[in-house]
Amino acid sequence: MESVAAARATTAAFAPTAAARRRARRLFPAAPPPPPPAEKRRLRLSCSSSSASSSSSSSSAWESPFDLGADKPREECGVVGIKGDPQASWLCSLALHALQHRGQEGAGIVSCDAGALRAATGLGLVSEVFGNDPAKLASLHGDAAIGHVRYSTAGAASSPLNVQPFLAGYRFGQVAVAHNGNLVNYAALRAELEDNGSIFNTSSDTEVVLHLIAISKSRPFVARVVEACERLDGAYSLVFLTADKLYAVRDPYGFRPLVMGRRRATGAVVFASETCALDLIEADYEREVNPGEVVVVDADGTVSSLCLMPRRQRKACVFEHIYFALPHSVVFGRAVHRERYNFGATLATDSPVPGGADVVIPVPDSGFFAALGYAEKSGVPFQQGLIRSHYVGRTFIQPTQEIRDLGVRLKLAPVRGIIQGKRVVVVDDSIVRGTTSSKIVRLIRDAGAKEVHMRIASPPIVGSCYYGVDTPSAEELISNRMDVEGVRREIGSDSLAFLSLESLRTSLGEEADTYCDACFSGGYPVPPMEFDFARTEL
User: How many CB atoms lie within 10 A of CB 446?
Assistant: First the structure.
């Protein structure tokens, strides 16, 4: 556990000071800014927004009784870009459906028709934003479009201004952008821009990129993009749309995924956060957008590429393989389901159950392939011992602990015939706060399990992510506060084991050094010096 202890110490070194918190509040007060004075420079940001449903707009009065994702790190967003298809906006909406797991609180599309850009955005799921008002999607004409799905942290989920893509007008015309990632120097850049007269319309770090492009003196547009990105520190996978071109950009470390494909029917070029989006719209995967690369798609479909800046050693987010990406996606050149299977198999070798077990069950859905690998490697039968309901929406806040505990069964139902009287191995992808794991252990015990052994197919999470993933503060992370035995007692299992950091790296093979595992190791490729106020909603 020495590596975990060292990681905790590294994470503690980045703990925010009281002064930093006060500065963050001064920089970004909760109240909206007053109307701008006329002499200040304003980037014209426009969007067509709507509150998709009453459940979306009244989240303060509703809560999920047992949200399986509430105790997981949350991917901030997903992006799509399409050029060269007359049904670009419709295809974009389908691709966003495939990326819905990457963000559920807002969605939007910007299309280009005859050189004019038009936006439609809203709060809620893709089906709510565009399905409840078909005219909205029908209004987005043209053969080019970009799209975005967003997850936000508390405080701005109800603000339609933060829903991307952002569409802005400046002296050279219109530009739209969609962003997956997080800029760790956002606060400094925003303060500098505001000191020079820029006025911000949102609390998103993505808007900084638009302001940097707007003030650039470089020509053509791609040169302004390069100049802007040279000022950025952190994670960014970006798609831009202008009157005649589509651009895809990835930061020099390649933290967040971005792939390129081509539709079989029309030859249209497609960019997306995951290959599952390409599959849905019948586009063939061609390659990743490389770290530090800008890919340009011209009006005639010609694709060109240039180096954004000198490439650094890639630091792709390993949590894409552990939890975020869908299992049928190919991310960072590797099949996600295969990586999860391997993590589970390695865990079985490293951490068998003392005295043996009778059955291996996954926590659905993300624990499935790791559990399958664990079962096949250990020789213990695999069974689907927990059934997840996919039809439970928000419910009224439960008034008592007893009723809240009963609410667990709305989301997960144990199969008593598989669990009762058995020594059960429960495989999950990660433990964050520990609240979900304790409920699952209790649920399985109540179903008659003789023993409950938790196996986690990732190392203990001891640090927050500052590169586009919403994670709790370090003090909220249970593995940052307790050792493995302390976590075991807290969640109530008979035994607990994590995949070690060393085994994770061994499983990744020769590419291990090209992955960011800072949430496990504390080794941050880009120091999160401003994280207390840089982790804002995308």
Answer: 14
Cα gap 438→34, rounded to integer Å: 46
To the query of whether residue 77 is one of the catalytic residues in this protein, the response is yes
Higher pLDDT, 55 or 95: 95
> Any idea of the CA torsion for 140, 145, 151, 152, to the nearest 10 degrees?
-80
- Residue 190, H or E segment: helix 186-195
Region 245-266: mean pLDDT is: 97
Instruction: Examine the pLDDT at 62 and tell me if it is beyond 50.
Output: no
For residue 435, the SS3 value is: helix
Q: What is the mean pLDDT of residues 255-259?
A: 97
Smallest CA-to-CA distance from 126 within 161, 91, 96 is with 96
Which is catalytic among the residues 77, 317, 465, 519? 77
In the numeric block, which tokens belong to residue 55? Answer: 């459940």
Q: What is the reported pTM?
A: 0.85
Q: Say if residue 531's pLDDT is above 70.
A: no
Torsion angle defined by CA atoms of residues 476, 374, 504 and 321, in that order, rounded to the nearest 10 degrees: -70
pLDDT at residue 390, rounded to an integer: 79
Classify burial at 301, counting beta carbons within 10 Å of its beta carbon; exposed 0-12, middle 13-18, buried 19 or more. Answer: middle
CA distances from residue 40 to 33, 36, 201, 217 in whole angstroms, order as listed? 14, 7, 13, 19
